[in-house]
Amino acid sequence: xxxxxxxxFQNDLxxxxxxxxxxxxxxxxVRATLDEVRWENAEPVLAAAEIVAAIAGHPxxxxxxxxxxxxxxxxxxxxxxxxxxxxxxxxxIAAVDRVANDSELADLVRDSDDEPAWLALLExxxxxxxxxx
Length: 133
Known about the structure:
Elements: H1 12-24, H2 27-35, H3 42-55, H4 68-76, H5 86-101, H6 104-110, H7 115-130
Helix pairs in contact: 1-3, 1-4, 2-3, 3-5, 5-7
């Protein structure tokens, strides 16, 4: 797996998920990802949670959707805003909590010096998701 940073789209699994989302481009695709949190699939779940925050108008401060292919996704997200529900935002927050507490990614980060920065990114994501409630 290629990882080049702590950000939600700075790894191959999240970028693969984003490409699949771009093809499907439905709230149901995002919801299904959030509902299927497993120990080994944290990266797509965090990407899906970031998409929920971006749909709500609260994208991350990083340059996460800043490559040409991702800008295409980002420019289309407002079209999904009418389908955004409080339930989906709550689901995204719960999914982020599950990733932080019980995932392969969390185990890997805990064994590194990056844990405080990663946890701060997750807290920021949850705060942005909470504004959509």
